[in-house]
Every structure is written in structure tokens, then in C-alpha cells.
Write a sequence for this structure.
């Protein structure tokens, strides 16, 4: 009798614990790999799916949004290295679909309405927003991404200079899936030291912190064929206010101590002499002090690197190397100051100097600053000193 | 049936560790930074300090009355009627608390893993497994904790080590937080001391002490367990705040879980660790709920003079289940946990202190050397 009761219980448990409710075959899922968000300018309304068709529908602060999604076609994406021959191009492996809506989720639901299988965002790699969207503000988009349990913090959020949807249409030759190519490109740029760590998780940290602002990768599509990292979009609160040029990323990486190094700088020594300097290691010490009742930031930047190219000169002695170091120091100092000044004008503290002030000058922060808005005011006229030091370690395998 | 007395100090320690590392520490960084922003580490130290005092009181009581259980010696100290009344309070309090943490755990599972599975099934499955596990005697349950200990400790250490490289020391500064007053810290500390794991950790001692090898083992095990789990909780909090900053730590419901979703093994051995870690959190929830459930049925059996705690294993099930299904949504649940947790401080801190005080005055129990 006792055994019978036990076996009945076991059978019930098996039924309960099999988790059949959430069984989902991979073919039933429409896996979104990449998502792009554009503004929809025409006044045509969307399909009345979540709301009646009338003029009085709440619309997100940026207006109507157009969402383009790159879906993985089940069974078409090869696992492991592609075997060459036979395989089709990106047209076969992915599918690009579009929808418009009054808000993020409205657009996503409209997208779902067109598809036979359930949308799945767990493998989302990239979200691309157009510059227009970024400039109008990403508060609601950011909230949606953060709220969605399937979307991860290591998703890339990118700003495209023009239309975001273009990015999803390009067909690179190196990878079957365009979005994977793009995310691989960004990951690689970080490894080569050309780009700061800036996935959506890091962006949110910068956005939420009181003494810091967020930045996102800024890309452009060249000739509808390839994608180029063309700078860094920086934000003031929730709105994009400008973008850095690609060469400025090197100095940004220096100040925020992003390692490994790797970015290069063409250093002009005299009218017809120049060298190409490539950083390998960056060390940056930032200190916040109080000077005459106002905060003062001191940046001590040390860059260790190599010479990879030269023009019209011989590099054969410590003396020459020291001369190059001196001039490079001057260049880096000048560029860093320029960069800081530019962000100060736009009131976007992407370096997080405010966090140093908040951390080290607690009483100043508590009496004078307290809020992010106030910090941006202070940041505008913040005095920043940049000290640079350059060390040349190698100059290739030539003796002169 | 007589229960054997053979729990060792290390088993006591591991049991306390497993009971304290549970679902509530996932939300701890959020609540700590809500109270005192970047002073989160300090406020947690304060909260856990209060907990250590509670554990100290309980250990002293256990040392004075090594052979009797909590309910029995409270009868000796303050008489039958009053101790029965307080015993009932303890029972109701833990039934609510265990129900609520089971619900919180199920909420987490349903939002990340099983969106379509009914809540009843998630809650029910966990509680049934726990109820079956409590059919064992207390020594065996401490062996269960002994077995699971490395499965919780190693991933947690791994998490701390992996996340450590992303810690930005700016975010944990200033240690006192910005614009905080003393009362902010006091309130924050009390809120943290009212966390479910604190109550479970303290009251688990009342179950374990009568079954430990010797009172000395009990003292050593409980103090070590309390300190060790506190240390790990503070470390996990430190890395969470250090990676997110106190402002961002406020925004997810379970910041520590979000952190575990972010960490990656070096060399990209596995692209995603979150499913692995979700398994660890399920284990940690199981061990915590197991201890809590054991407290309910053990206290219940002592209160109603039953032969063994096993009798109540299934009887308590509908009660805890009812408590778990009561909250309407996650906000309601969090409010209830905080409310019940704060009132619970009377039961787990003030009542034992009161007992100890009376025992000292009336010279009951073994006199300390």
C-alpha cells in the first residue's frame, strides 16, 4: 500500500517537473539576431493591432517607430566553419522583416503579426538606432530593452549615421550572417584596442551614474556594402549630442585606460619628418582635488608603444627616440585637452570625471552638486589638467 | 523516535551558509543601494552585524540549554502559556516568510526560464520536493547541506573572481555614500537585518543545536557559518556595486542575477554561463527553503508535543503553499516580505534576547563558566 502511494506520487511529480509548458521547438521560434530602429516620418498609421484605428493614440516621445528585424532562418545557419561551396549568401540564411508602431512594443507586436512563429529575442546581438532616434532621445527604447527578460546586457547598441535599417541589408562576404559579422567586428575592434568597451550594459552604467554620461559606437554604411566604425556617439542624459571622430577614440581610450592599446597616431616631427606611433599599453591615473572651492581633475596619462613607420629620418639612437617621445607627448596632451573641451561644450561627461568627484570629494558633491543635471553644469567649466608621458619600447626590426 | 546527536561544527557551518545564500541575496544590492546609494557595502555590514548579534544571542541560549529545543526551554523560562503564544507567532511568521521566498524564487524562474509555466506548478514543485526532503531526520538534512555546500560555494567564488576585473573602484566610493544621514544607515541596516535569510539563518540554530555533537561544536559552527556567509554576501555585493554603480544597481529586480548573466569565462570556453548559474540559484533556493521549511515543522512539532517533525512534513504544505500564492504581483510580494521581515525582527532578535535575559535573572539552565 505504502509503495503504491509512493509510486503514484512519483508519477505525478514526473508530470509536474517535465516542464512541458515551456517546450518550444527551435523551428517554432523566429530568432531575431539584429534589430534596427528608425523614425517613421509619414503620417500613415500602423495596423490597428494593439489599439483602435484613431488619431488619439499615445505615441512614444520620438514619434512613430519603424522596426526592422533580421531573423535567422532555421536550419540555414551552419554550425562551425562553413564547408565552402554549395552554401548560399546572406539572402538564404537570414530574413529581413519590417513593421511600424506607436511605440517599441507596438512595433514588435506588429512584426509578430506578420510571422508564423514566436519571436525570440534571446539571441539578439545588435540593436541599431538611427542618429535621428538617438538625438530625439532613447529613454523609452532603453526602458524596453532593459525590461525585456530575454534581451541581455551584452547586446550591442549602435548608432547609425543615417538610416539604421540599411545596416541590416548589407551583405558582407566574410560571414553568412551579416549581424554576426558586425558584432564580431566590434568585438575584434576592442581586442585590437581601437574601441572602448561599450556594450549596452556599460552604456546603461554611464547613463545612470550621476557623474557620468553614456556613449555608443557610431557606425556608417559605406556604399551599401560594408560597415565602418566611424566614431563614438556621446549622450547628454538620454539624448545624443555629438560624435567623436575615429582618431579621437584613441585619446578617449587613453584617458579611460582601455587596454590593450593598439590605436595609432601619425606624429609630425618637422616639416618633412614623421613617424607612426602605435600604443600598446595605456595607464591613466585620474585624481579629483578641490582647488579654491572648485573641483579640479588631474589626468596622468602614460602611453607605452612602438614605432611602426617613419618618413625621412633615421631612428638609431636613444636621443632620437626621446625626441619622438617628447613630441608625441605634446600631441597626445593637445588632443586629449581638445577632446575634453569638446565634450565640455556639449556637457557630456563620457569620461566619468564626475564619478571621481562624487567618490573622492564627498562633502563638495553633497553640498554643491547632488544631481546629474547640476554636475553637467559644473562639468562645463571644470578645470582639467592633462599630463602625458610616452615610452617607446620598440621600433621594428630595422637598425636605422 | 530519538534523533541521534551527531552534527559536527563544520556541518552546522555549511547548513547556515546554504540557508543564507539564497534567493534574497540576488535582490540585496538593489535594496542596499536604494537606502544609501554607494554606502551599500557599509549598510550591508551593519545589517549583517545585527544578524551576528542575533546569532550570538541564539548561540548563548543554545549553550545554556544544550539538550532542549527552543520551544522546550522557553517553556522553562517564561512558562507554558506565554511560550506557546510566542511559539505560534514563530510558526505563523515562518510559514509566511517561507511562502514568500518560494514565491520570489518562482517569480524569478518564470521571468527568465519558464514564462508559460503556471506559478502554481513552480511553487508546488519546489515545496513538494522540500517537503519530501524534510522527511529525513535532522542529521541527514545536515548531510544534504554538506553535500550541496561545494556546489554553492565554488560557483559563487568563481562569480566573484570573474566579475572582479570589471569592478570600477569609483563606483563603490565614497564608502559612506552621498547625502546620507545616520538614520538612513540605521533604517537600511534594519531592512537588511530583516531579510528572510537572516531569520532563517538565526532560527536554523534552534533546530541544529539540540542535535549537534556537543554545545561547543554548535557555537563554533554557528559563528563560523555566520561570519563566512556574511563575508561572501559582502563580497558579492561589492562586485555587483563595483560593476554597475549604485545607480544602475537600483534598476533590475535582481541585480546579482543580472551580473551572473554578464560574466563570461576567459578564453570564451562557454559563451553563456547563465543557464549554469540559474541551476546554482535553483540549488541555493532549494537549500534555503529546505532549512526554512524544517524550522516550520520542527517548531510546530515541538509546540504541539509531537513525536517527530516528520509528522508535519505534508501537513504544513498547504499552509506554506497558501502563503506563497497570496501575493498578487511582484511589488505586492516585495512589500509583504519587507513588512513581515521587519516584524520578524521581534521574533528572531528581541524575543530570544528577552528569553536570555529572563534566564539569567531566574538562573535557569546551565550556568556559564
Amino acid at each position: 500500500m505504502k509503495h503504491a502511494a509512493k509510486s503514484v506520487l512519483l508519477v505525478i511529480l514526473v508530470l509536474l517537473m517535465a516542464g512541458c509548458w515551456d517546450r518550444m521547438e527551435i523551428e517554432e521560434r523566429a530568432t531575431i539576431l539584429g534589430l534596427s530602429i528608425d523614425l517613421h516620418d509619414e503620417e500613415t498609421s500602423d495596423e490597428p493591432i494593439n489599439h483602435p484605428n484613431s488619431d488619439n493614440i499615445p505615441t512614444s516621445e520620438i514619434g512613430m517607430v519603424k522596426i526592422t528585424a533580421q531573423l535567422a532562418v532555421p536550419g540555414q545557419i551552419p554550425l562551425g566553419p562553413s564547408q565552402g561551396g554549395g552554401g548560399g549568401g546572406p539572402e538564404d540564411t537570414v530574413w529581413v522583416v519590417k513593421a511600424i508602431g506607436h511605440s517599441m512594443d507596438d512595433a514588435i507586436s506588429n512584426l509578430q503579426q506578420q510571422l508564423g512563429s514566436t519571436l525570440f529575442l534571446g539571441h539578439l546581438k545588435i540593436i541599431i538606432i538611427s542618429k535621428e532616434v538617438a538625438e530625439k532621445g532613447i529613454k523609452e527604447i532603453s526602458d524596453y530593452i532593459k525590461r525585456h527578460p530575454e534581451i541581455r546586457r551584452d547586446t550591442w547598441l549602435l548608432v547609425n549615421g543615417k538610416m539604421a535599417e540599411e545596416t541590416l541589408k548589407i551583405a558582407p562576404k566574410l560571414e553568412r550572417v551579416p549581424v554576426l559579422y558586425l558584432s564580431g567586428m566590434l568585438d575584434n575592434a576592442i581586442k585590437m584596442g581601437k574601441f572602448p568597451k561599450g556594450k549596452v550594459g556599460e552604456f546603461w552604467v554611464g547613463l545612470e551614474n550621476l557623474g557620468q554620461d553614456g556613449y555608443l559606437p557610431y557606425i556608417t554604411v559605406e556604399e551599401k556594402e560594408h560597415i565602418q566604425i566611424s566614431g563614438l556617439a556621446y549622450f547628454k542624459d538620454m539624448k545624443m549630442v555629438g560624435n567623436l571622430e575615429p582618431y579621437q577614440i584613441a585619446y578617449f581610450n587613453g584617458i579611460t585606460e582601455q587596454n590593450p592599446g593598439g590605436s595609432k597616431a601619425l606624429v609630425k616631427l618637422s616639416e618633412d619628418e614623421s613617424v607612426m606611433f602605435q600604443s600598446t599599453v595605456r595607464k591613466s591615473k585620474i585624481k579629483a582635488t578641490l582647488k579654491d572651492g572648485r573641483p579640479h581633475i588631474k589626468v596622468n596619462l602614460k602611453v607605452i608603444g612602438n614605432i611602426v613607420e617613419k618618413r625621412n629620418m633615421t631612428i638609431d639612437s636613444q636621443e632620437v627616440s626621446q625626441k619622438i617621445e617628447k613630441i608625441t607627448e605634446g600631441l597626445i596632451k593637445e588632443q586629449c585637452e581638445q577632446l575634453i573641451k569638446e565634450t565640455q561644450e556639449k556637457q557630456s561627461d563620457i569620461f566619468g570625471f564626475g564619478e571621481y568627484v562624487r567618490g573622492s570629494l564627498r562633502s563638495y558633491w553633497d553640498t554643491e552638486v547632488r544631481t546629474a543635471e547640476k554636475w553637467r553644469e559644473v562639468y562645463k567649466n571644470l578645470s582639467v589638467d592633462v599630463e602625458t608621458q610616452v615610452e617607446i619600447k620598440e621600433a621594428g626590426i630595422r637598425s636605422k | 523516535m530519538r534523533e541521534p546527536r551527531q552534527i559536527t561544527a563544520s556541518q552546522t557551518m555549511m547548513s547556515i551558509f546554504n540557508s543564507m545564500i539564497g534567493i534574497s541575496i540576488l535582490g540585496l544590492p538593489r535594496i542596499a543601494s536604494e537606502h544609501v546609494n554607494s554606502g551599500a557595502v557599509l549598510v550591508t555590514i551593519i545589517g549583517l552585524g545585527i544578524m551576528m548579534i542575533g546569532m550570538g544571542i541564539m548561540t548563548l541560549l543554545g549553550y545554556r540549554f544544550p539538550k532542549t529545543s527552543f520551544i522546550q526551554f522557553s517553556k522553562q523560562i517564561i512558562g507554558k502559556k506565554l511560550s506557546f503564544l510566542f511559539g505560534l507567532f514563530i510558526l505563523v511568521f515562518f510559514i509566511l516568510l517561507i511562502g514568500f521566498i518560494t514565491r520570489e524564487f518562482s517569480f524569478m524562474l518564470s521571468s527568465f526560464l519558464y514564462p508559460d509555466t503556471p506559478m502554481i506548478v513552480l511553487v508546488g514543485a519546489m515545496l513538494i520536493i522540500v517537503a519530501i526532503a524534510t522527511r529525513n531526520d535532522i542529521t541527514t538534512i545536515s548531510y544534504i547541506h554538506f553535500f550541496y555546500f561545494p556546489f554553492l560555494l565554488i560557483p559563487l567564488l568563481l562569480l566573484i573572481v570573474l566579475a572582479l576585473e570589471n569592478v570600477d573602484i569609483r563606483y563603490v566610493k565614497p564608502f559612506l555614500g552621498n547625502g546620507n544621514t545616520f538614520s538612513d544607515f540605521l533604517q537600511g541596516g534594519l531592512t537588511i537585518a530583516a531579510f528572510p535569510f537572516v531569520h532563517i539563518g538565526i532560527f536554523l540554530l534552534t533546530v541544529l543545536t539540540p542535535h549537534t555533537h556537543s554545545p561547543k561544536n554548535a557555537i563554533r559552527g554557528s559563528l563560523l557559518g555566520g561570519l563566512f556567509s556574511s563575508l561572501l554576501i559582502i563580497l558579492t555585493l561589492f562586485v555587483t556595486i563595483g560593476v554597475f554603480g549604485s545607480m544602475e544597481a537600483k534598476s533590475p529586480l535582481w541585480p546579482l542575477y543580472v551580473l551572473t548573466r554578464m560574466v563570461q569565462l576567459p578564453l570564451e570556453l562557454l559563451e553563456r554561463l547563465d543557464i549554469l548559474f540559474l541551476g546554482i540559484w535553483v540549488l541555493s533556493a532549494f537549500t534555503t527553503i529546505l532549512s526554512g521549511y524544517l524550522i516550520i515543522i520542527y517548531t510546530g512539532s515541538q509546540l504541539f508535543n509531537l513525536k517527530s517533525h516528520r509528522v508535519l512534513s505534508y501537513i504544513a504544505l498547504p499552509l506554506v503553499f497558501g502563503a506563497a500564492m497570496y501575493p498578487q504581483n511582484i511589488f505586492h510580494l516585495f512589500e509583504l516580505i519587507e513588512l513581515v521581515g521587519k516584524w520578524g525582527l521581534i521574533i528572531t532578535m528581541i524575543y530570544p534576547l528577552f528569553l536570555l535575559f529572563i534566564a539569567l535573572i531566574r538562573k535557569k539552565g546551565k550556568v556559564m563558566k
Remarks:
- Chain B touches chain A at residues 38, 111-118, 121, 124-125, 128, 168-171, 173-174, 176, 178-179, 243-245, 247-248, 250-252, 258, 261-262, 264 (CB under 8 Å).
- Chain B is about 75% helix and 0% strand.
